[in-house]
Amino acid sequence: MTAIIDLLSSDIVQTVLIGAALLGAISGMLGAFAVLRRQSLLGDALSHAALPGVCLGFLIAGGRDLGSVMAGAFGTGALAALIMMLIVRRTTLKTDAALGIVLSVFFAVGIVLLTVIQTQGGSGSLGLMTFLFGQAAAILRSDLWVMGGIGLAAILLVLAFWKEFKLVSFDTAFARAQGFPVTALEAVLTVMVALAIVVGLQLVGVVLMVALLIAPAAAARQWTKSLGGMVVVSAAIGAASGAGGALVSATTRGLATGPVVVLIATGIVMVSLLIAPGRGLIWQAAATQRARARISDGRVLATLQGFAQMHDDAGYPSERGMLQIALGAKPPAATLASLESRGLIRSVMHPPETTPHWELTKAGHTEAAALSGEPETRQHTK
């Protein structure tokens, strides 16, 4: 415990921890809109499109100047977003094809520029490779102010255009019919995603940035049904993933922060897919099992009621073999036990036969009538 406290007192660890949490919150908030707009690959395309901007910023500045590099990354990322939007609107290609074209072309240009820079030599060019996978230890206190400013700007924009962003995310056609500037709103959302990617390049890099955008939103989608709840939960999951990854990386030798952050976010997605109430796989499996049990119960009750009506005797006892013939299969013992425990049927003997028989109780007749939608069978006594 003392070692952890000493570790957290380090300025470097504090800076990385705060930076990772800020980046996770920003990415989670903006990623929610990308997921709802079915543009999960948008972050992947823009993050890869930022690589040539990183290289151009390095060439223009003549060195690894963070401001120039980030400005270049934002410039090419925004350009890639505009090209993607133009391809979708001016051609017959769909969004996924446009994203694939932009991603591959811009990343190829970035790799070519990166190769050219490295062949020129110089120690400064070696640091450019960190933008592929990130280098959290290089984050400075001054970078936190930049992250905080971008995060605050993103929050203010989301709050100011909440109704418009919500409508564009769920029904673009209706928003356009209502006279909303859909193209401008989508451009604003895209630029915000590009800003988040630029901020995250130094922490998680070009390759892994898309996971930090999509994973928190995908997890949050499992836990809430409202846009507001999804945005808040996604930002919280992103912040927790960033802070958790920074702590694990700081306490474990040789682990890079970016990949650990992504792995934690992915782990939260997997847990959410399994146990989220109503939507998790476990919940769905349980619901399916309950539905099958209800169907099986209903068939048995309906069969017993049919025998009772056929013999004009509400308490007519039916043997298991009779139920098997009527149902086409032997009724499971678990089904009969469940119905008996709920007071819908009871086990009786029917001399001279020695095998067990079952008859509907009054509650069973009521339940069977409710399931079939028919009037309740008249009650008789033997």
UniProtKB/TrEMBL annotation:
Record Pfam families:
ABC-3 (PF00950)
Q: Describe the family membership recorded for this protein in Swiss-Prot or TrEMBL.
A: Belongs to the ABC-3 integral membrane protein family.
Species for this entry: Yoonia vestfoldensis SKA53
- Listed InterPro entries: ABC_BtuC-like, ABC_TroCD
Bilayer-spanning residue ranges: 12-36, 45-63, 69-88, 97-117, 123-140, 145-162, 182-215, 227-248, 260-282
Q: How does it sit in the membrane?
A: Multi-pass membrane protein
Any one Gene Ontology BP term: response to zinc ion
Key word Cell membrane present in the record?
yes
Q: Where in the cell is it found?
A: Cell membrane
Instruction: Give the keywords, sorted.
Output: Cell membrane, Membrane, Transmembrane, Transmembrane helix, Transport
An example of a Gene Ontology cellular component annotation for this protein is: ATP-binding cassette (ABC) transporter complex
Question: What's the protein here called?
Answer: Manganese ABC transporter (Membrane protein)
Q: Which domain of life is it from?
A: Bacteria
